[in-house]
Amino acid sequence: MMFITINTVCEFICFLAALIFLSNDKEPAWKLFKAYLLLTCITEVAGIYMSHVAHISNYQLYNVFLLFECGVTSYIFYYLYKPYKHKLNWLVTWYCIFIAMYITELFINHFKSFVSTTATIMSVVFVFASLYYYYLKLMDENFERLILSAPFWWVSGALFFYFGSTTCNIFFDYLAKSKPITYGHSIRYFIFNLLDIILYAFWSYAFLCRYLRRKSFS
Amino acid sequence: MQISSEEIIFLIGLTSLIFLIAPLFLIIYVVSYNRKKKKHQEEKLLLQKTFENELLKTQIEVQEQTLKTIAYDLHDNIGQLLSITSITLSSIDLTNKDKSAEKLAFVEDLTMRSVKEVKALSRLLHGEELVNRGLAAAIEFELEWLQRSDKFTINLDKQNFVAFGGDNSKETIIFRLFQEIINNIIQHAKATEIFITLAQIENSFKLTIRDNGQGFDVDEALRKRSGMGLHNIVKRATMIGGTTSIHSTPGSGSEIVVNIPY
Questions:
Q1: A138: domain range?
Q2: Structural domain contains residue A1
Q3: List of chain B residues whose C-beta atoms are within 8 Å of the C-beta of residue A175
Q4: DSSP letters of B93-141?
Q5: Do A134 and B26 touch (CB under 8 A)?
């Protein structure tokens, strides 16, 4: 029962949506979501197991997951920028910067805590990436029905999540030590629950849009 | 003053909430801007359609003008020549050889003139395609035809003109503008002299048509929106991104300048 939380349910529903709506998708970027969301579900369950059953710290698990999160999300942004003639160099440069920050923070923390600074910077970069995508859409002369645009809703979900989590990321250390506000949970828990609901609802809708688009073209 | 941990947590919660509202407004803005983009695109499409319709109308009008000229020519020139030929032939008295020879020579002359007229008419029929050969050629041909009537002295100045740099559809519309202005002069101006200047100024084409006719009240003519079709001239020039300036005072001729950018 402890494995059924708002987070895990949202992630699982989104994974199911990806499994159903992206089953025959030919685009590698969209196909990637099935594996990524499965990994997210496994990480979340493993995180709960380590924390509540094995009673060991799970930050190392989330440190590893952060690599996948950054890798996949950055690649998707790169894929969305592709029609606007963006070069691979940007993605590679960002990956290099991220790895450098990640390793530096791990060494500074002596591998004993979550790489919160790197996660915060990553969130800020993804917020800028989302805003840049909006900018490209605004500048684009071609009209596209955004209500049914899968990339648009995927980016919107990412923007909500990464923008909304900025405060929590900045105060990560403080919130980790703070007392629970109600039902034994911290404010961070409630904020991330809300963010997860928004993120996975938007992403599930994006997968549905992708499915509808594929259907209308076939 | 020290801030309590509850207050900090409240502030974190509040900031996060604000950070959630901001993207919401951003999404609403992007979606509404996108809707405007759609509307703009529809308007652009409508404008394009209107332009195409107007172009088609212009092409038909150019054709109609050609047919009208042919009809007038058939009636006034070739018809007359053939009638005289017929009358002359029927009046030949074969017993009077001298007179007959004279009449036959006259008939021969009439026939030659008819052939010449038919050839000119044939060129006019092909004239519809003249616009495709170039604006200057089409204007020159039209003026050549006009000059045959001997009613006007025509001065064409194209020293500052080499070739029209715009697309074909623009050329057709300009040619029609030229025809409309000339028609106005023929029908209303009571002029004896027409001055036409074709010029290229930087990236635009300038057509100036001036006459020494009776002139007219420009404001009134534009207000009436009928008769001379000045409104149509202004509208069509605007449609292809050009401007028209009309100068005239009653009793001292008129001048119309059309400026079309490439």
A1: 6-213
A2: no
A3: 9, 12
A4: -TT-HHHHHHHHHHHHHHHHHHHHHHHHHHHHHHHTTHHHH-HHHHHHH
A5: yes
The topology under which CATH files domain B134-262 is Heat Shock Protein 90 (3.30.565)
What Å distances lie between residue A125 and A74, A132, B182, CA to CA? 9, 10, 67
Q: How far apart are CA A152 and CA B43, in angstroms?
A: 25
Question: In chain A, how many domains are there?
Answer: 1
**pLDDT, tens only, B159-191:** 877 777 667 788 888 888 898 899 889 888 888
Q: How much is the pLDDT for A218?
A: 66
Q: What is the ipTM of this complex?
A: 0.77
* 10-residue stretch averages of pLDDT, chain A, 218 residues long: 87 95 90 95 94 88 95 95 86 95 93 88 94 91 87 95 84 69 72 91 95 83
Low-confidence ranges of chain B (pLDDT < 70): 1-3, 124-131, 165-166, 225-228
Stretch 187-216 of chain A: residues touching chain B, C-beta under 8 Å:
187, 190-191, 194-195, 198
Residue of chain A nearest B42, judged by CA positions? A143
Interface test with A, best of B3, B4, B14, B19 (most A CBs within 10 A): B19
Contacts of A147 in chain B (CB under 8 A): 31
Question: Cβ separation of B33 and A171 shorter than 8 Å?
Answer: no
Locate the domains of chain B by residue range: 7-128, 134-262
Handedness of CA A126, A131, A134, A136 (dihedral sign): negative
Do the Cβ atoms of A146 and B34 come within 8 Å? yes
- Taking the Cβ of residue A4 and every Cβ of chain B, the question of whether any pair is shorter than 8 Å is answered with no
Q: Is residue A218 part of a domain?
A: no
For residue A180, what pLDDT is reported? 64
Q: Do A164 and B20 touch (CB under 8 A)?
A: yes
DSSP for B135-182, please give it. Answer: HHHHHHHHHHHHHTT-S-EEEEEEEE-----S-HHHHHHHHHHHHHHH
One-character DSSP codes across B9-72: HHHHHHHHHHHHHHHHHHHHHHHHHHHHHHHHHHHHHHHHHHHHHHHHHHHHHHHHHHHHHHHH
